[in-house]
Amino acid sequence: MDIRILGAHNCESTTTGCVCFLIDGTLAIDAGALTSNLSIDEQQELNAILLTHQHYDHIRDIPGIALNCSLRGKSINIYAQADVQAIIEDHLLNGSIYPRFQELPSDRPTVTFNVITPCRRNSINGHQIMAVPVHHFGNTVGYEVGDGTGKTFFYTADTGPGLADAWRQVSPQLLIIDVTVPSEYEAFARKTGHLTPALLKRELVSFRETRGYLPQVLAVHMDSSLEPKIREELAAVGERLGISITLAHEGMQLRI
Question: Which domain holds residue 33?
Fold first, then answer.
């Protein structure tokens, strides 16, 4: 699988984008940086988008993608839980902010919503997908994505500590995980459902106790203004655990 990091941060600037990944050119996870980092032609290659939860930085480009697809007669599948679909239909594709592309054109709507059930494996766009509940806001889920040959990665989405149940369900080669702020912000991280390097260390110890190994680790959703400190602390965590922890960046490409 080819993974392209379109957005790696928790906010947008001239050099950063909200979290968003492109898998094999046709499957996206979250929609924080789709229209700003994909050409129109690349957007037309998209067949499906997986959404983790309804926070704006994860759904913001759904209207733009829908508009660009509609003008070219293309349709796209969006996979999400029912509450996320409701937020998008009520507040974005509501006929006031943007057209109701889930109903237009009437004979072949541009957007098709598909409700995804956690902890159930699905075949989506040639990939094996399982949504896994995590600890953030409401019914947030991460996604385990496999290519059918045993190669998998797990994206935690935005998450706070307490991932033991998730670890029992996944066994990825690559773990893409939220590390939003440095460890001195632990109270903030716990309150808002995010991780710090110190909290990540505990979760990785839990992963190793559960699965018997540690995967490759890629940190995402960093606050860009605090990234130097996060990087320093993650290097120390990696050294303690005997692994390399990489910070994602916009434009990064990986293959597993």
Answer: 2-255
Neighbouring-strand partners of residue 76: 111
> What's the rounded Cα separation, in Å, for the pair 194 and 158?
6
Peptide bond into 133 cis (omega under 30): no
- Residue ranges, the chain, pLDDT below 50: none
DSSP conformational letter for 92: T
pLDDT tens-digit series, residues 133-187:
999 988 999 999 999 899 999 999 999 999 999 999 999 999 999 999 999 999 9
> Whole-angstrom distance between the N-terminal and C-terminal Cα of the chain?
5
Per DSSP, 161 falls in state S
CA gap 47, 166 in Å, rounded: 27
Check: CB of residue 157 under 8 Å from CB of residue 195. no
- Report the alpha-carbon distance of residue 181 to residue 199 in Å, rounded: 10
> In the prediction, which pLDDT does 138 show?
84
Tally of domains within the chain? 1
| Whole-angstrom distance, CA of residue 230 vs CA of residue 181 | 6
Q: What is the 3-state secondary structure (H, E, C) of 101-139?
A: CCCCCCCCCCEEEEECCCCCEEEECCEEEEEEECCCCCC
